[in-house]
Design brief:
The structure holds 2 protein chains of 2 kinds. By secondary structure, chain A is α+β, with helices and mostly antiparallel strands. Chain A has 12 helices and 23 strands. The radius of gyration of chain A is 23 Å and the shape is globular. In chain B, the strands form 2 sheets. Chain B has a 9-stranded mixed beta sheet with strand order 3-2-4-7-1-8-11-10-9. Chain B is globular and about 55 Å long. The two termini of chain B are 19 Å apart. Classes of the chains: A alpha+beta, B alpha/beta. Chains A and B meet through helix 12, strand 19, strand 20, strand 21 and strand 23 of A and helix 5 and strand 5 of B.
C-alpha cells in the first residue's frame, strides 16, 4: 500500500513582527506574533527545493528515481510555466518524471498528498506544498500570511503513514482571492459573514464529518491554522483536546503558510506519533473548500523525519520586508545582451550547474566543476560523475559594495569555498558564489557553508535560478 | 619556455598621449596623436615608408564600439594601407603582446622596421558599463551577466593575503599614495594630484578590502612605439633602447579554479621565462612597471616577480622598496592607478615610460642609472601574464 516514506519542512529565516507592522499600519491579526518572510532571493520554487533536498537526502533517496513531482502553491512566480518543472531541474529529476502543478487554493497541498497516496505509482512521488502569501499592504491579512514549504516522499510501500478515509468538501465561498493582474491577495471584509460561511464554519463542518467517517476517535489533529485563535472555538464545539492540535506555536511565529500549512502540521504530528495512532489532517482554501483525511501512523514515523530546515529567526523591519516582497520597487537593471534563462546556455548548463553534477578525475582524484574535458590538475580525460558536494569551508571572500545585482543590497559577501572531500592543493575542488542569509560582518575565512538554491536574477522577465553559499544551519 | 635567448630588437621611437576621460577625442584622434608623438621622438627622423608592418593592440573595440575590430582600425586613420597589420588582443597584456609579436617578426627576419600602437576608447559608455561590469569568471547560470566583477575577484586575493601574512589595507593605501605621487610627476598621467594616506584609507568601499582609491580609473588613451633591428637602431636614434623579449604564462580563468589565492603562478612563470631569456635576475632590474589595476595586485606582484619573498610585501613596502630611491622603484609612471588603464594601450605606454627613464628624460621621477627595466601585465585574474624586459644596451 502506498505510504509516506519521509518528510521535511523549510521555513525562511526572516520574521516580520506584528509590532513592527503596527508601526506602519494600525491593527493586528489575532494571535499572530510574527510572520515568516521570504528573502529577496527566495520564492516558492527555492523553498520547495530546499525542503525536497532535505527529505530526499534522508534514506539516500536519489532524485533520479522520482516518478512524479506534485507541487502545490498559490504563489508561483508564473501563471503559465510549471513550477514543478523548475524544481525538477534543480533536483535533477529524470526526463520522464511526471511534473504536475496544483494550485488555486491553499488546500492544494493536502490534496496533492492525498492524490499521491491514492495513486499508487511504482516510483516515488515527491509532494510539495509551498506558499509565500502576500496580503495587501495595510490589510490585517498582510501580517497573518506567512511563507514556508513542506516536502513529502510517497512510495509504494512507505512506512511512516498510510491513507485512511478521505473527505473532500468543495466550496466556492470566497473571502480571499487573486486574479492574474493583482500582485496581492484581495480580501472580502465581512468577518461575521466569514465566520458563518468561511474558514471557521467549513473547518468545523469538515472535522465533524471527517471524524464520523473515521469512526470517532483520532490521536492527533493536523489542521489548517489560519491564525492561532480560531481552532479553540472549533475544538470546543467538537469537544476535541487542544493538546492534540499541532503547529499552533509555529503559526504564531510564522503566520498562515497557505499550501504548506497543513502539511507542516502533519509533519509535526508524525514526528511524535506512535505506530498505530491516527492523525486527522484537514486543509482549507478560500474559494476551494476543504479536504480532510486520516493518516494511519506506521512503523516508520519517528524514523522517517528529515531535519526541518529552520534557521535562527532574524527580525526584519517593515521597510526591509517591503523590499523583499516587492512592495518597494527595486530599480531595474539594464537587460543583458543575451539572457541565460531562455537561451541555449541555460539548457546546456542544466545537468551540471543546476542539478549540480561534478566530475572526479579517474587519474588523480581532482574534483572538477563545472563540466570540462581535461582535468584541471592532471589534464586527464576520464572522469566519474558524482553529485556535487554541497558543503565546504570558506578559503577567501570579499564584500561587494558596488553591486550590480538586484534585489540584493550591498554589501554582498562573495565566497570562494573548498568543497568537503576535495583536495586542498591544486586547481580543483572549489566553488565560488554569492552568500545569502548571513551578516557580512560575520563572514570569516574558515567558515562552514552550504549551497542552497536561490533566485539569481530576472532576465527578459524570466526568473533565473542558481545557488548561493549559506552558513550551515543546525537542525531545529 | 621560449627557446631563444635575448632578441636583437631596438625601440627607436616611443610616444603617447595623456590618458584620461577624453570625451573630445575619438579613437582615431587618439591613435593619430600617439603615432605623431612617436614619430617626433625618433631622434634622427624616420621616413614613414620605412614602416613595413604594424601591430595594433586593442582590447574592447568591438564590445564597446560594437564594430568589427581588425587591423583596418589602424590602416584607415593612418592611411597605412596596403601594408600588413595584425590586431592583437590578450586582455590586459594586449599592448605588451603586440610589442612581443612585432619583435618576433623582426627577429625572424621577416621585417626590419615595424610600428606598434596600443589604443583604447573606454569612456564612450558609462565607466561602470565597461571594465568594472564585465564578468565571466563565476558560473554563468548563477551569476552572469551580473555579480562577479574585477574588484571582487582581485579583492579576494587581498583578503587571503591579509589572512596569511598580516598585510592590511594600509599597505594597499601606501601603494596608492606612491603611485599618485609618481603620477603628479608624469605629464602623461590622468591624475596629476597627490593623495594622502588618510584619503586612500577612507575612500568609499567598492569590494572590501578594495576601496575606490585602490582601483585604477577607466580611461581612454593611446601609445605607439617603433621597433627595428638592433643593428639598424642607430640609423634612427641617438639613444635607442632594447627589447630583449618576454615571458608569457597562463592560469585558469574561473576564480574557484585557482591553485592559490595568495599569489599568481602565471606571474611567477612569466617572470622566470623573461628573466631567463634576458639573462637577468631581479638584482639587475633598475625599475619596473607593473599591473596595479588594484593596489592589492601590485602588492602581491612584488612577491611573484621576486622583488621580495612570498609573504614579505608588507615589510618591503614599509622599508621603502618600491619607492624612488628604494631597492627597486615600481610604477614611476604613476602606474595604472594614477596614469590610467586604457587596456590595449597600457603595455605600450609602459614601454614609453622605460624609454624616458633609460634616456634620462623622466624629470623628477628619474631613476638614477636606469639600465634594465621590466613591464608586467596581468589579464583576467592572473589568467594571462606577460613580463617584458627592456634595457639600455643590446644583449
Amino acid at each position: 500500500m502506498p505510504g509516506i516514506e519521509s518528510y521535511s519542512v523549510y521555513v525562511p529565516r526572516y520574521r516580520l513582527s506584528a509590532e513592527e507592522v503596527s508601526k506602519v499600519w494600525r491593527g493586528t491579526a489575532t494571535g499572530i506574533k510574527s510572520r515568516s518572510v521570504t528573502g529577496c532571493d527566495e520564492d516558492v520554487i527555492t523553498m520547495a527545493t530546499e525542503a525536497a533536498l532535505a527529505t530526499l537526502s534522508k534514506d539516500g533517496l536519489d532524485a533520479g528515481q522520482l516518478g512524479a513531482i506534485f507541487m502545490a502553491t498559490t504563489s508561483s512566480p508564473y501563471f503559465v510555466k510549471s513550477a514543478a518543472a523548475v524544481v525538477a531541474d534543480l533536483l535533477g529529476a529524470p526526463k520522464d518524471c511526471w511534473t504536475v502543478d496544483f494550485g488555486s487554493g491553499t488546500q492544494a497541498g493536502l490534496s496533492a498528498l492525498v492524490m499521491a497516496l491514492s495513486l499508487g505509482l511504482d516510483r516515488p512521488v515527491l509532494v510539495l506544498g509551498a506558499d509565500a502569501l502576500r496580503g495587501q499592504p495595510g490589510d490585517p491579512a498582510e501580517f497573518s500570511f506567512g511563507a514556508a514549504a513542506a516536502a513529502y516522499v510517497v512510495t509504494a510501500d512507505g512506512s511512516a503513514g498510510q491513507l485512511g478515509s478521505v473527505l473532500p468538501q468543495y466550496s466556492s465561498y470566497t473571502s480571499i482571492w487573486r486574479t492574474p493582474e493583482q500582485p496581492f491577495l484581495a480580501r472580502y471584509d465581512d468577518q461575521r459573514f466569514d465566520r458563518h460561511a468561511g474558514y471557521a464554519a467549513q473547518t468545523e463542518r469538515a472535522l465533524r464529518h471527517a471524524l464520523e467517517l473515521a469512526g470517532g476517535k483520532v490521536d492527533k489533529l493536523a489542521i489548517h491554522l489560519a491564525d492561532a485563535q480560531q481552532p479553540s472555538g472549533i475544538l470546543r464545539a467538537l469537544k476535541l483536546d487542544p493538546t492534540h492540535v499541532t503547529g499552533v506555536d509555529l503559526v504564531r511565529s510564522c503566520g498562515d503558510t497557505g499550501s504548506a500549512n497543513t502539511l507542516i502540521n502533519l509533519a509535526l504530528a508524525l514526528d511524535g506519533a506512535q505506530p498505530g495512532q491516527r492523525i486527522l489532517a484537514q486543509s482549507y482554501g478560500s474559494g476551494a473548500g476543504t479536504i480532510s483525511c486520516v493518516i494511519n501512523v506506521g512503523e516508520g514515523a519517528a524514523r522517517r523525519r528529515a531535519p526541518t530546515v529552520l534557521a535562527e529567526p532574524v527580525e526584519i523591519s517593515y521597510d526591509t520586508y517591503a523590499k523583499f516582497v516587492g512592495i518597494l520597487p527595486i530599480k531595474g537593471l539594464p537587460e543583458p545582451a543575451s539572457p541565460y534563462v531562455a537561451a541555449p546556455g541555460w539548457e546546456r548548463a542544466k545537468h551540471h550547474e543546476i542539478a549540480l553534477h561534478a566530475q572526479i578525475c579517474k587519474k588523480c582524484g581532482c574534483l572538477n566543476f563545472p563540466f570540462r574535458y581535461y582535468c584541471l590538475d592532471c589534464r586527464g580525460e576520464t572522469f566519474d560523475e558524482v553529485p556535487l558536494p554541497r558543503k565546504g569551508t570558506i578559503l577567501t571572500y570579499n564584500l561587494q559594495y558596488v553591486v550590480s545585482v538586484a534585489p540584493e543590497e550591498a554589501p554582498v559577501p562573495i565566497a570562494n569555498v573548498l568543497l568537503d572531500g576535495a583536495k586542498s592543493e591544486g586547481y580543483g575542488g572549489k566553488v565560488a558564489a554569492m552568500m545569502t542569509d548571513c551578516d557580512p560582518e560575520n563572514v570569516k575565512i574558515g567558515m562552514r557553508v552550504e549551497l542552497v538554491p536561490r533566485r539569481s536574477g530576472v532576465e527578459v522577465g524570466l526568473v533565473k535560478y542558481g545557488y548561493k553559499w549559506r552558513p550551515t544551519v543546525e537542525d531545529k | 619556455m621560449a627557446q631563444k635567448k635575448a632578441l636583437s630588437v631596438a625601440i627607436v621611437g616611443a610616444g603617447m598621449i595623456r590618458f584620461g576621460e577624453l570625451f573630445d577625442q575619438s579613437y582615431d584622434d587618439m591613435m593619430v596623436a600617439a603615432y605623431r608623438a612617436c614619430l617626433k621622438s625618433v631622434d634622427k627622423g624616420i621616413d614613414e615608408n620605412d614602416l613595413q608592418a604594424a601591430w595594433l593592440g586593442t582590447c574592447n573595440g568591438s564590445m564597446i564600439r560594437h564594430e568589427i575590430v581588425t587591423g583596418g582600425m589602424l590602416a584607415e586613420p593612418l592611411r597605412f594601407f596596403p601594408r600588413p597589420i595584425t590586431r592583437v588582443e590578450n586582455a590586459c597584456c594586449t599592448g605588451s603582446d603586440a610589442i612581443r609579436n612585432a619583435a618576433f617578426s623582426i627577429e625572424a627576419g621577416v621585417y626590419d622596421t615595424v610600428l606598434v600602437i596600443g589604443c583604447e576608447k573606454m569612456r564612450d559608455i558609462p565607466s561602470r558599463d565597461s571594465l568594472i561590469q564585465q564578468t565571466g569568471v563565476m558560473f554563468h547560470q548563477w551569476w552572469a551577466p551580473r555579480g562577479a566583477t574585477a574588484p571582487n575577484r582581485f579583492g579576494q586575493f587581498a583578503t587571503a593575503h591579509f589572512h596569511a601574512f598580516g598585510t592590511s589595507r594600509k599597505h594597499m593605501a601606501m601603494i596608492a599614495v606612491k603611485n599618485h605621487k609618481f603620477g603628479s610627476m608624469n605629464h602623461y598621467a590622468y591624475f596629476r594630484k597627490e593623495i594622502t594616506l588618510e584619503e586612500a584609507l577612507n575612500s568609499p568601499m567598492v569590494s572590501w578590502p578594495v576601496s575606490l582609491m585602490d582601483c585604477c580609473p577607466t580611461t581612454d588613451g593611446a601609445a605607439a612605439v617603433i621597433l627595428t633591428r638592433a643593428d639598424r637602431a642607430h640609423e634612427y636614434s641617438n639613444h635607442p633602447i632594447y627589447y630583449y623579449g618576454g615571458g608569457l604564462a597562463t592560469d585558469p580563468l574561473i576564480t574557484p579554479w585557482k591553485s592559490s589565492f595568495i599569489g599568481h603562478p602565471a606571474t611567477v612563470a612569466a617572470a622566470k621565462e623573461a628573466y631567463q631569456m634576458a639573462g637577468i635576475t631581479t638584482k639587475d632590474i633598475s625599475l619596473a612597471e607593473v599591473h596595479d589595476c588594484f593596489t592589492c595586485n601590485e602588492m602581491i606582484t612584488y612577491e611573484d616577480l621576486g622583488f621580495c619573498e612570498k609573504g614579505k610585501a608588507g615589510t618591503w613596502i614599509e622599508e621603502g622598496g618600491p619607492f624612488l630611491g628604494g631597492q627597486l622603484p615600481v610604477n614611476t609612471s604613476g602606474g595604472l592607478k594614477a596614469k590610467g588603464h586604457p587596456v590595449g594601450a597600457t603595455g605600450v605606454a609602459q614601454a614609453v615610460e622605460l624609454w624616458e627613464q633609460f634616456r634620462g628624460e623622466a624629470g623628477e621621477r628619474q631613476v638614477k642609472d636606469a639600465n634594465i627595466g621590466i613591464t608586467h601585465n596581468m589579464g583576467g585574474i592572473g589568467t594571462i601574464v606577460l613580463v617584458n624586459v627592456y634595457g639600455n644596451e643590446p644583449r
